[in-house]
Amino acid sequence: MKIIFDNIVYNKASNGGVSNYWFELTKYLLEQQKDELLFFDYNNQRNFHRNNLELPTESIITTSEKLSFLERIYPISFKSDEKFIFHSSYYRSISGTKNEIGITTVHDFTHSYYSPFVKKVLHNKIKYGSIKSSKGIICISNNTYKDLLKFCPPKKDQKVAIIHNGVSDEYFPIVENRTSEKEFLQRFQLEEQKYLLYVGSRANYKNFPLATALLNKTTDMKLVVVGGNFTKAELQTLDQNLLKRIVVMTDIDNATLNVLYNFANAFIYPSSYEGFGIPIIEAMKAGCPVLSLNNSSITEVSGGVALLYDQINADDFKKGLDRLNDKSYRQDIIERGYIQAGKFSWQKCCEETRSFYQENYDTN
């Protein structure tokens, strides 16, 4: 098959689940060497995943360091005398030929639920247009599929597949306290099972204040925040004494994050909505108990293993932390987490995605 990728996601964000997904899918297809791969590439040096991806020079159709807003939303112009799969990393279409077989991956409907009106309208116009013009639609969870039916129902002639995200093999239990890992923890004055871990964006619906409220209910723990540095607005809301117990880490690799998962008392994920929630599986795969909210895909992905709560309430989360002090209970949660995490892999995700390409290619 000829497959064309639009790497626009690397130009839109510095990190995150979507660029991680795109990185893993691209890497898999390059390693398979079964298809003719071509890329509209946007080699933005601020994207963590793009910086770790090597693309063959001959496979790049065009490249740019920066795109304007209009260039990001306008269709790509491309001509071909043979049919090909076109998969955009973030809701972009292609024009100039009738031979494309468009594939769209729908990650979530966060904008439909949480964005301000104008931003939601602009985003959904682009997103829904991409969905409606595609031959095949991939949803990364059953919950995202339900949202697709709610907000942008597919047409009868469109194929839809539910293909779950994966998790990197770089997350695993550390069975021995190796010197390098001890030194890493000591550098940040982190002791085993003496810190909580928060990973990802701190957008409003992520409910990051619950993590700090939970920290405030403890006296012997720190909070490690993996993500961007605090903004001035965030710093103004944080108590200075509490801030002394918070460690922020930016742009860390999987190996470092695996160490953090391994030695955390718990992973705190108080999000009100997720299309999938990759960090949940990362934590479970590394043997870290998860405390989260009982909603959206979180319920589906956690598989009844995480400690889930119906309300954003620090007291409830604190009770969960206290339950984890029971060594037998904690070990049971960890062992069941290993089993749940084993249901997801990037290998499985990528194999199913390529099969979906082939299915659409053969029937169009």
TrEMBL record:
Gene3D superfamilies: Glycogen Phosphorylase B (3.40.50.2000). Pfam families: Glycos_transf_1. Residues 189-338 form the Glycosyl transferase family domain. It comes from the Bacteria. InterPro entries: Glyco_trans_1. The keyword Transferase applies. Keywords: Transferase. This is Glycosyltransferase family 4 protein. It comes from Flavobacterium cerinum.
